[in-house]
Design goal:
Layout (H helix, E strand, L loop, with lengths): L2 H13 L13 H19 L13 H4 L4 H10 L15 H13 L17
Helix pairs in contact: 2-5, 4-5
């Protein structure tokens, strides 16, 4: 195939893929929704659909805040050797992993697993 035709074919192929990362490096709204689905369904298969734990540990916001965003992104991408936590690098980008880490630390609906105070106990 002549080079100009190949370049045109390659350009057309990329036009069919949805834009996941915008020009300024942020993720599109559509991609964020896909990642949130991945988190609660795929990650949830081990960490629990509500992130309260299962085969894998619970992922409440207060626990996620003990890690740097970079450390969480690294764990998401590389996994944890010797554990059931797989690396997701073959399926998601670095930007995706950073967004997931930020979401776990800031937008995660599971704030804590600490038991609420009993009636009559001080908070």
């Amino acid at each position: 195939m002549p080079m100009p035709a190949f370049n045109l074919l390659l350009m057309l192929a990329f036009c069919w893929f949805p834009v996941a990362v915008l020009a300024d490096g942020t993720l599109s709204t559509e991609r964020k929704e896909e990642l949130e689905t991945l988190l609660y369904q795929d990650c949830g298969s081990c960490h629990g659909m509500t992130l309260r734990g299962g085969l894998g540990p619970s992922l409440p916001r207060d626990r996620m805040a003990t890690f740097s965003r970079e450390a969480l992104a690294h764990i998401i991408l590389q996994g944890i050797p010797g554990s059931a936590m797989p690396g997701w690098k073959a399926l998601i980008s670095d930007a995706d992993a950073r967004w997931l880490a930020e979401h776990l630390q800031t937008d995660n609906p599971l704030e804590t697993l600490a038991a609420p105070p009993r009636p009559g106990e001080q908070e």
